[in-house]
Amino acid sequence: MRTFIRSCFSAAPRVLAATLALSAMTAAGAQTLRIGLAEDPDTLDPTLARSMVGRFVFASMCDKLVDIDEKLNIVPQLATSYQWSPDNKVLTLKLREGVTFHDGEKFDAAAVKFNLERAKSLPGSSRKGEMAPVESIQVVDAHTVKLVLATPFAPLLSILADRAGMMVSPKAVKANPNGFGSNPVCSGPFKFKERVAQDHIVLERYAGYWNKSAIHFDKVIYQPIVDATVRLANLRSGQLDIIERMATSDVAALKAENKFALARFPELGYVGITINTGKGENAKNNPLGRDPRVREAFELSLDRAGIVQVAADGQGAPGNQGVPPSNPFYAKSHPIPARNIARAKALLKEAGVTNPTFSLMTPTNSDGQKVAQVVQAMAKEAGFDIKIQSTEFATTYQYADSGQYQAYVKNWSGRPDPDGNLYTFYGCKQSMNYPGYCNPKVDALLNEARATVDPAQRRKLYDQIADVVLADRSIVYLYHRDWLWAYNKKLTGLRTIPDGLIRVQGLQM
Question: Of all helices (H) and strands (E), which one includes residue 115?
């Protein structure tokens, strides 16, 4: 019988019972893919969801209108082709025929209209900002839909290649509008079976999947294991087939093991520290939030290259913007600042702040803990007293939403278009604007960049955005990770696409 290896702190009766039941279930089926996650996802409703690990589950469960490939090209999925109007204000999508949702309902243009309008209007939608420029969705015929825009919108296709483009069953949503995320119905290769919070998510193969020849497993089980060492132990013992975000400190040892393989490739996003500058009392009481000079001193206390070496064992690249220095939209006029303790101390003196103390919220996963500890030690040399606030992953989002934090170690998995790494974090009142940041000039530039199709002109606009946000420092960027997946060498067909998601199409033992 298969049982998952766990730390001694997780042997609660409920969890143990669920794990034993899961083990019995997996023993019966030989074609089960077991994936180890670094956290437990939030809601499984793509319109409301925000966590990266949720996107791993969605990759098996919810097909999108379009996808991206290894070179970030837009490729077909539920839409077989697309065409822009000459003025770039109308996007016409031709939809795949013969597709059904997991409840047997047909996927068609009406379903696309329902989904995109829901993304725009559902209270609490995390996709609202992404879809704001879309004025209307028009059904042309059963397999053709038009998206009519107020202005040209350069990031739209990349947005439809993520959660905004994931299609769910309108019938299932209407039947369970408030609890859909607990029993999702999509149109991907696997359908939802069950979930036990903090323990497992089980998906079963959907017999009616349009691309069934690419699917070689009967079941996918996602196992959230926060401790990277325990996650790797489960892989080594055969309880898991692949794990995401293995510990950087284990890379050298795993390379020497013949049974396993390692996939390493750069991410599209970043690791950074989000600072509460404008959300409630915690912003007012936050020494970082009150004075930009204190934030600048904090940044100057940090050695980014040192953070990469110590916290990430060199598996990443230092960075100071929402995109890495290799990205064409990186603002070269703002290179990575060197550490300068003397200047940091001078800024604190100038601001009249001595021994600034603040709490740094971090998820309980090992990556976040290491970053927080290294930052704590470095900033101490400039006079900062940082209290590490270890918080369960999903709870960090709740605290960030409500402003119940002062600073937050936040990882962002990244998007192909730079808009996806900036707009939702800096736009006034956007869904993931956790700092409570609002600058009308930045808002105007973000919207202009969205409406600009010419890449050279867009780069100029993002340079102007960098001029402001890097001085305001509501986010202090640290580095850009390498995605690290460890997996059984018997697993073939794995594709390393920079969004960091494990696609099950083509995977087999």
Answer: helix 109-121
Domain co-membership, 338 together with 465: yes
> DSSP states of 295-328 as a string?
HHHHHHT--HHHHHHHHSTT-EEE-SSSS-TTST
CB half-sphere exposure, 418, CA atoms < 13 A? 26
CATH label of the domain that carries residue 471: 3.10.105.10
Q: Are residues 411 and 286 in the same domain?
A: yes
Integer Cα distance of 113 and 134 in angstroms: 11
Contact 127, 47 (CB under 8 A): yes
Domain boundary among 171, 187, 221: 171
306 and 363 share one domain: yes
Alpha-carbon gap, residue 277 to 267, rounded angstroms = 27
Residues 126 and 51 in one domain: no
509 residues of the chain, pLDDT tens digit each: 344 454 433 433 334 444 444 444 444 445 999 999 999 999 999 999 999 999 999 999 999 999 999 999 999 999 999 999 999 999 999 999 999 999 999 999 999 999 999 999 999 999 998 999 999 999 999 999 999 999 999 999 999 999 999 999 999 999 999 999 999 999 999 999 999 999 999 999 999 999 999 999 999 999 999 999 999 999 999 999 999 999 988 998 998 888 999 999 999 999 999 999 999 889 999 999 989 999 999 999 999 999 999 999 999 999 999 999 989 999 999 999 999 999 999 999 999 998 999 999 999 877 889 999 999 999 999 999 999 999 998 899 899 999 999 999 999 989 999 999 999 999 998 989 999 999 999 999 999 999 999 999 999 999 999 999 999 999 999 999 999 999 999 999 999 998 989 999 999 99
Say if CB 95 and CB 89 are below 8 A apart: no
Structural domain boundaries, residue 386:
270-482
User: In whole angstroms, what is the distance from residue 172 CA to residue 101 CA?
Assistant: 10
CB atoms within 10 A of CB 460: 13
- Whether 388 and 281 map to the same domain: the answer is yes
Q: Where are the alpha helices (DSSP H) in 190-300?
A: 228-236, 251-255, 280-284, 287-290, 292-300
Residue 494 lies in a domain: no
Instruction: Please say which residue of 171, 196, 213 terminates a domain.
Output: 171
